């Protein structure tokens, strides 16, 4: 018996035509209310891992191993059952709010749809729940935002709408994939703060995926480092950042810590710590 | 032109966009000078006017009013055919090399593109083939890869291609517009180091636009902080980083994500 919400065991994901697996025998556990970061570079397999958990991988992906949700196996789960899980118990915020929202539908209706799809509220009540939720993610004029189309909103507002959608059903687990990478630092800081507040209220666990270790360290208690599809190191935030065991992790820390490097001069680079293996390209 | 003549003089520059329901003043009475060889940072968030400002400085947009003087001559109100010296002298590197590089062109052709342009009419045009080999080596790419296509390179390498293209006409000024914002943090330092080396080796003037003040602090001597189309604070970078006067500058500094080690 465990208290794990999500248990990933020996998960591998391969795409046809690629010599190397995108995800290579990774294992990761997330307990109830726990906040875990998955840090890695472009192409490391971090987003593929998230999509595998969400059951959103392309049909040609070949998946082995196990992903269990509160004990139930997700790999091979029936679509109808998976759909109920998504958005209700597990939800996700993607990097690009412009592509994640339907451009032809007013944002309020899109938020309401998530609510209704998951057996939530009748139409009249839905509207007020939507406005409340938008207000909770720091949107000052929820009426106007609900009646706007996505293109009429700023990047920060769109990302807040997505966070509202992801949290409206108080999921047990929220997965965020580079949720602030497309935003300015000032907007990023505000969105991260709102996300923290939203998670506190909903009591949800978090899987936070990013290439930016400084951002990850603001959000999570545990960190797993993914490199070329493998988790090379994992531990508490303090263990990983103060006593990294893998030289690749040490390199990520050095490159992320711009604020603590003296101005001017040469910045530390990953190569100072870790020589990349020439895998593929 | 005296030796202490700044390379750029920007005076009372205004740009109003009037195609929306209400006119928007993107750049609002901005004045400053850039001494030759300076590394100037321009910081501000989306909508602060920084991108509109540098596009006007590069002659890609026309100001509504005000003047821009490059190397002693105004660039405002001139026809394209009169701007060859500006086009050779000022080059840009954009944020996203995925969209700024033509996916159907070979790397060698991308880098040599500025050398094939009309801007060389009546002047000595460098030989593209030898220049490409030279430039690729200088930005840390393998000249042997010159017949490959952009998608065959990583994000950091694609930005090196864009930098090589910008250096092709031997410009005096390099303008980097959020040039590392789309890169992984782990790749960012390599590209910043490359900018630093190139600017020092070739005595370039660098105009480095970013929303991240901690990056600007590493690259620049001086900084302009823009907010809602105006310059709200300007001066030497260390002074502003350590002792910001304007509340918006303080907010920018506070927003920089820092490693939380505890």
TrEMBL record, chain B:
SUPFAM superfamilies: P-loop containing nucleoside triphosphate hydrolases. Residues 8-253 form the ABC transporter domain. It holds the Pfam family ABC_tran. The keyword Protein biosynthesis does not apply. GO terms for molecular function: ATP binding; ATP hydrolysis activity. GO terms for biological process: transmembrane transport. It comes from the Bacteria. The keyword Nucleotide-binding applies. Signal peptide: none annotated. Keywords: ATP-binding, Nucleotide-binding, Transport. PANTHER family: D,D-DIPEPTIDE TRANSPORT ATP-BINDING PROTEIN DDPF-RELATED, TRANSPORT ATP-BINDING PROTEIN. Belongs to the ABC transporter superfamily. This is ABC transporter ATP-binding protein. It comes from Brooklawnia propionicigenes.
